[in-house]
Amino acid sequence: MPRTDSSLSDQLPRLDNQLCFALYSASLATTKLYKPLLQPWGLTYPQYLVMLALWENDDCMVSELGERLFLDSGTLTPLLKRMESAGWLQRQRDSADERRVRIVLTAAGRELREKLAGIPECMLQQSPCTLSELQALRLQLQQWRDHLVTLIPPASH
């Protein structure tokens, strides 16, 4: 017969007590807020992240981009193909090693940077936190992520 001890049920994991759920649901909410800001340019949130990374480091290998974004090639490759079709970037075989693919922004991809420059400010205005609070939160999350990455077996990266 199952125990109905209320103290035992209070000890069981509860969804709202889970850090993983708080991170996951905050990520979903954030993505939903970005959607209408990116929609006029036909960008999805993951594509926006790719563009942010490429604006920092254009002409990089797909593998480098995947490491930067914490995405595997199975996720990144279809995303890059759609972005290439949209005219924002080009995928080129590396001349030194045909197995490697370089990603290079097109003029349209570089121009998109100016058009999307106001998005971080829009997101800041929607936050109940100050800029310094958000910067502290970002730093904590980056430290947390960097620690967790060290715990993941190498084949799973």
From TrEMBL:
Molecular functions per Gene Ontology: DNA binding; DNA-binding transcription factor activity
Keywords: Cytoplasm, DNA-binding, Transcription, Transcription regulation
SMART domains reported in the protein's UniProt record: HTH_MARR (SM00347)
Annotated SUPFAM superfamilies: Winged helix' DNA-binding domain
Subcellular location: Cytoplasm
UniProt main location, coarse: cytoplasm
PROSITE patterns tied to this protein: HTH_MARR_2
GO biological process, one term: response to stress
GO (cellular component) term, any one: cytoplasm
KW Transport (keyword) present: no
Family annotation (InterPro entries): HTH_MarR-typ, MarR/SlyA-like, Transc_reg_Sar_Rot_HTH, WH-like_DNA-bd_sf, WH_DNA-bd_sf
Domain HTH marR-type: 16-153
This protein's name: MarR family transcriptional regulator
Species of the source: Comamonas antarctica
